[in-house]
Amino acid sequence: MQATTVSADLAKVVRRVKNLPTLPVVVSQLMDAVNNPAFSASDVSRIVSNDQALVSKILRIVNSAFYGLPKRVSTVTQATVILGFNTIKNLALGATVFSMFKDGNGDDSACDRAEFWKHAIGTGVATKLLAREIRYSNPEEAFVSGLIHDIGKVVLDQFLHEEFVEICRVAREDGIRFSDAERIVLNVTHSEIGHWLAQKWNLPNQLDEAIWHHHDPSAARHAPRLVAMVHLADAVCRMERVGFAGDEVEPEMDPSIWDVLRLPPDAMENVLANFGKEFERSTVFLKLAAE
User: Would the pTM of this model clear 0.70, i.e. be above it?
Assistant: First the structure.
């Protein structure tokens, strides 16, 4: 995890974040375990079995259209053998984040949590599709990176709700970017808050960078390709109006991503052609968010 200095403005904001959910021990143990070559599928199952609610969520996702497996999977051990350690780890993290931040605050139409989750899932799906196009080694990591890239917005909505509503209002009425409205209201952005949360949770560097630099991909040092994919996927979902990301401004793409990604000629066509079907398969995550 990369340590950074917290600015005075960010420190002022995070001091108001009371009772922040901690990443469950099971998920932390999984993130450590998958880096151990001696670990087996039964070891992963043993860790996850300490949280039966998480077991249930993982099996629901594994048996959903999201994976479309030919036979029903009944144990985490089976799921791990079929899908791999990294997939189970990323599913556990994604399902956990949805569960911890599932509820919104208030009924403000400008800050609809369900629309936020649609955008998050859409970005995850688009990132995973891009990962396939460039043969990225861990497409499930790509999905989760897109899924949680805007987690800082959820922290704002959950813990600084009045300011979050004001940010939404400023962005809407002034026709400016959400991040610019954040600067006006708090002088802190959701990317900075998300980076702070990633450090609190001790997330891997590559996930941290996807959260922190998805609007500034050229700043990525540990995972430039992953961050570039999330940046592009976020822009695609904004242009296609998938969910709502907080403003109606057309996205600007950092030109540096093209050299980083080196997409095949038909990559974007393939992503757009497959997006609708893949998004539909991902509705299991929307159901988790609604519970």
Answer: yes
